[in-house]
Amino acid sequence: MTSAYDIPVTTAEGTSVPLRDYAGTLTLIVNVASKCGLTPQYEGLEALHRDYADKGLRIVGFPCNQFLGQEPGTDDEIQEFCRLTYDVTFPVLGKIDVNGPDAAPLYAHLRAEAPGDWGPHHGEFYDKLNTITPATEPGDIVWNFTKFLLDDQGTVLTRYEPPVTPDDIKKDLQHHL
């Protein structure tokens, strides 16, 4: 079985690098967007990065414009937004697709390994998204700020759907670090 860490990714500068370069004890992978109602999660992600990086957590952001065009900027504009608006110091890589025929290989792998738990138990957010985006393929990313926690071997430990905040993840991080 392929590890997520064996899959190359592209930096915001356009360089292909192995995801292994970003690996640590744990890696949190997140599809991000700068014009989404969930964009303030950047603040929580940065707080996790600052609180847990020295304990072995790596966070890697992947901008995606597939959800109502909420990440329209260029890679340079996205980098500037992250730095100036949220003082992001964790890596935010090049813009990608997370679903469909042009999905980045990493996300095709993550979706297959952890199809998710998107359902009515997510309440109002679930109801709203189901009116905005019709039914998706099993395992598809449903919105910005879906998160995957990987172990040191690149295996998905947990998939967190968009309404799960970085603060909600702390308990799992403390358990695995």
From TrEMBL:
Q: From the record, what ranges are coiled-coil?
A: none
Would the keyword Secreted turn up in this protein's UniProt record? no
- Tell me the Pfam families matching this sequence: GSHPx (PF00255)
Residues annotated as catalytic? 36
The GO annotation for biological process reads: cellular response to oxidative stress
Please name the GO terms that the record assigns under molecular function.
peroxidase activity
Q: Which domain of life is it from?
A: Bacteria
The protein's UniProt keywords, in alphabetical order, are:
Oxidoreductase, Peroxidase
PANTHER family assigned to the protein according to its UniProt record, in alphabetical order: GLUTATHIONE PEROXIDASE
What is the protein's given name?
A: Glutathione peroxidase
Organism annotation: Saccharopolyspora flava
